[in-house]
Amino acid sequence: MGHSDSEDHAVHAPVSPAPVPAGIQDTLASSGQSAPTIAILAGEDSGDQLGADLIVALRHRYPLARFVGIGGARMKTQGFDSWYDIRELSLFGFAEVISHLPRLLRLRKELVARLILERPAVVVGIDAPDFNLGVEQRVRTAGLRTVHYVSPSIWAWREKRAEKIGRSADRVLCLFPMEPDIYSRHGVDARFVGHPLADRFALVSDRIGARDFLQLPQNAPVLAVLPGSRPSEVNKLGRIFIEAAKKVAADLPGLRIVIPAANAQVHATLTALLGDTPGNDGAPVLIDGHAHEVMLAADVVLLASGTATLEAMLAKRPMVVGYRVSPVSYRIAKAFNMLKTDVYALPNILARACGLGKDTILVPELMQDDCTPEKLAAATLALFQDSQRRGEIVAAFEQLHHALRGELEGQAGDRAAAAIVELIERPHG
């Protein structure tokens, strides 16, 4: 999933063990190692949540298992022994990674040596492909079994990366249903386990409850604005999005604008951008966290491209997506034909992959030079003014939600655990 572009503590609370469905129990029923050491390497907050869910599910099969590696607070709550602080890997952007490269290379060398010494039953790298795939390849060469959980976006660019991933991982666990077929073309064992976010959102969303929670009027039009979860994104997009929201408000009487801040840094950045906004019922309201509740309360969402678009889709909320990358990065990607898709937002990619039409555009995308206050406002206002179109989008999002849950029993963490146990207990050779 990569990192999540919104943070919602109500959604990400540590999970408690739940009964394992019968279909999963059958998979977990053999009696191999009763107390294996299982290494998990999570590099971001979203990976910490996936890791915590995975530990809970694996303990159903291995109650005495020891879990080690790199993880955060949620994994530690489940009894995880973290050898390094998860923040060691929480880097974003080429320049930031380059500046920390010597330290990251030392960490990877130490980690690989320790894993080879410990000889865990399996090494599970969660996302963070730039770091984890290198670790996985080295320990696999040393005879350890490896799993990569969360495929990089091979459906969007550089499909040939699937071969490199296959050299690193004995098995890839995929969140999206179209991914295993791509890997199979390159001879890689990949399993669709479902997307955990699809388990965390109800199939039928509760707008009334979300508005009560946020103390918003039930009969007012509401626009959620999410210009990103990192200060760098908000600095780049925040002013554009806020100006777009104000333009919508000028043409839509009674509009309430709500902006969730993912963290304290983002809150400070948004506060500065909103500093000259007059205080009245129509002024943007900035709140701490609760991004999912804000989406559920909204009629339309205006947001930056990224995982947040998937969250808005699962909340069944029509949306407008905007984004800008540096002009240099954009020209490089275009010049080398690195992008294999003409759409960027996950709902549009999923709609095409899941059979809703090869030219389907569910979500307006305004990228680069098109990401202006005027164009964002026009697309957002058009959704507010077309209730029939909003209803069609919601129906399509419901179909995609079902597709991300898959037809198998249990939740994504259960299915991921089953695929890992199967690999652990498979005879060598």
TrEMBL record:
> Could you tell me the EC number(s) of this protein?
2.4.1.182
Q: Where is the composition biased (Basic and acidic residues)?
A: 1-11
Q: Is the keyword Repressor assigned to this protein?
A: no
Q: Keywords in UniProt for this one?
A: Glycosyltransferase, Lipid A biosynthesis, Lipid biosynthesis, Lipid metabolism, Transferase
EC category name: transferase
One GO term of the cellular component aspect? membrane
Which chain positions lie within coiled-coil regions? none
Q: In which pathway does it act?
A: Bacterial outer membrane biogenesis; LPS lipid A biosynthesis
Q: From the UniProt record, which GO molecular function terms apply?
A: lipid-A-disaccharide synthase activity; phospholipid binding
Q: Name one GO biological process term.
A: lipid A biosynthetic process
Identify the stretch(es) annotated as Disordered.
Answer: 1-29
Does the keyword Lipid biosynthesis feature in the UniProt annotation?
Answer: yes
Catalytic activity reads: a lipid X + a UDP-2-N,3-O-bis[(3R)-3-hydroxyacyl]-alpha-D-glucosamine = a lipid A disaccharide + UDP + H(+)
InterPro entries on file: Glyco_trans_19
Physiological role: Condensation of UDP-2,3-diacylglucosamine and 2,3-diacylglucosamine-1-phosphate to form lipid A disaccharide, a precursor of lipid A, a phosphorylated glycolipid that anchors the lipopolysaccharide to the outer membrane of the cell.
Could you say which protein family the record assigns here?
Belongs to the LpxB family.
Can you name this protein?
A: Lipid-A-disaccharide synthase
Q: What's the name of its gene? A: lpxB
